[in-house]
Amino acid sequence: MKTILLALLVAFAFAGCATGPKIDWATRVGHYTYDQAVIELGPPDKVAKLDNGIIVANWITRQGYAYSSVGAPVYGYYPGGAIAPSYTQGFSPTYYLRLTFGADGKLTEWKKYAQ
Question: Rounded to an integer, what distance in angstroms lies between the CA atom of residue 75 and that of residue 56?
């Protein structure tokens, strides 16, 4: 029974840590199409179709967020009494993948950026 429980615990640990392979975008330049990108990544969050047939599409790869926290006041004997609580705030940017497709529909350029 302990062996089965241990095996299940190990299986769940490895399953939770699994990530997919990273995409090498440089190898896809010249033959990857906009339609393939939509099938693989889903519809882009923003897309611009230019007059010359170029398509610029952005996908959000990780959503940004703001955070704040309040530390608890510390009580005890201090020369000024209790220490006031601390307050911290910050943010994490949103990360994007920008793919640019030529007039022939093939990938010409890619870029990852944060905003």
Answer: 57
Instruction: Please report the pLDDT score of residue 20 as a whole number.
Output: 61
Helices and strands (H and E) in the chain: how many: 2, 6
Predicted model pTM:
0.66
CB 34 within 8 A of CB 42: no
Residue ranges covered by each domain of the chain: 32-114
Sequence-separated (6 or more) residues with CB below 8 Å from residue 85: 70, 71, 72, 73
How buried is residue 57: exposed, middle or buried, by Cβ count under 10 Å (0-12/13-18/19+)? buried
In angstroms, rounded to a whole number, what is the distance separating the alpha carbons of residues 30 and 101?
9
Task: Report the C-alpha gap between 84 and 108 in whole angstroms.
Answer: 56
Helix (H, G, I), strand (E, B) or coil at 29: coil
